[in-house]
Design a protein that fits this description.
Layout: H1 3-6, H2 14-46, H3 50-53, H4 57-87, H5 93-126, H6 129-163
Length: about 160
């Protein structure tokens, strides 16, 4: 059984299924875009603060990586919209959806990196650097578990449950 067949409703045809899946992806992207764009705007403002100018090379490096990761996340979350506009009315939604899905997943990866960088920038001010770095490693692990490992586990166990039917 393919993913498309597994996630179909009995009362919908292929076109309706693609429309529903596209709408679900857009709803998810709306949520992710808003937070990511706010984070990106906040990060842009940091560079112009007087205290930031005096920060050390480590802080400037973390900032640069965090800003770039945030920009890449925004770009990947917006990419499906551009993709859709360019291929609109070409009847290739079946090809567009898997690509847009990968863009969204890539955006989530860069968002995790940007979140970790933002947390590191803040914690580095209030904690010793080693503790700040260790805390961010734990935050990254938390994201990895709940954003990737748990969904992968659920997907794997539900797929194995269906194959036994």
């Amino acid at each position: 059984m393919t993913d498309s067949e597994r996630y179909s409703r009995p009362d919908e045809d292929a076109g309706e299924r693609l429309d529903r899946q596209w709408n679900e992806l857009l709803q998810e992207l709306r949520l992710a875009q808003t937070g990511t764009q706010i984070l990106f705007a906040f990060l842009l403002s940091i560079a112009f603060q007087n205290r930031f100018q005096d920060a050390d090379a480590f802080t400037h490096g973390v900032y640069a990586v965090t800003l770039i990761a945030s920009a890449l996340a925004v770009g990947l979350f917006l990419a499906p919209v551009s993709f859709h506009r360019i291929v609109y009315r070409h009847k290739i939604r079946d090809r567009m959806l898997p690509v847009a899905n990968r863009m969204a997943i890539g955006g989530l990866v860069f968002l995790v990196l940007a979140m970790a960088g933002g947390v590191l920038l803040a914690l580095d001010v209030v904690l010793p650097r080693a503790i700040a770095i260790l805390t961010v490693v734990l935050v990254l692990l938390w994201f990895a578990v709940f954003w990737y490992a748990v969904p992968a586990w659920v997907r794997r166990t539900s797929a194995s449950g269906e194959s036994g039917r």
